[in-house]
Design a protein that fits this description.
about 130 residues; alpha+beta; Potassium Channel Kv1.1, Chain A; four-stranded mixed beta sheet; 6 helices; elongated; delayed rectifier potassium channel activity; K_chnl_volt-dep_Kv1; cell membrane
Length: about 130
């Protein structure tokens, strides 16, 4: 019986302190979304506190439950009822969840997506249009 090779780096637990409230998750959970602030080691390192061995963010605490759930659920984003829309939108931007997550969130919140209208091909019409 051979043990299955296993990369223990991905099981490493990380502590994220959001304005005094500590959250714990696995590194592999964050690494699922490498284009985000928490998913990219190079971006999140600036928030690391080596004395406490944790990442510290002076951000909105109630929002972070939903931000962390985004990582844990594979990309589902739901605004907590006690967090205003504008505050949660700022948190999405701060954690760099991306355009896809932002658009999905806005759609779920009932925002109407504006369709881009192509510019007219005729030069005169284009000048009038602009």
């Amino acid at each position: 019986f051979e043990p299955i090779p296993h990369d223990h780096d991905f099981c490493e637990r990380v502590v994220i302190n959001v304005s005094g409230l500590r959250f714990e998750t696995q590194l592999r959970t964050l690494n699922q979304f490498p284009d985000t602030l928490l998913g990219d080691p190079a971006r999140r390192i600036r928030y690391f506190d080596p004395l406490r061995n944790e990442y510290f963010f002076d951000r909105n605490r109630p929002s972070f439950d939903a931000i962390l759930y985004y990582y844990q659920s594979g990309g589902r984003l739901r605004r907590p009822v006690n967090v205003p829309l504008d505050v949660f939108s700022e948190e999405i931007k701060f954690y760099e969840l991306g355009e896809l997550a932002t658009n999905k969130f806005r759609e779920d919140e009932g925002f109407i997506k504006e369709e881009e209208k192509p510019l007219p091909t005729h030069e005169f019409q284009r000048k009038v249009w602009l």
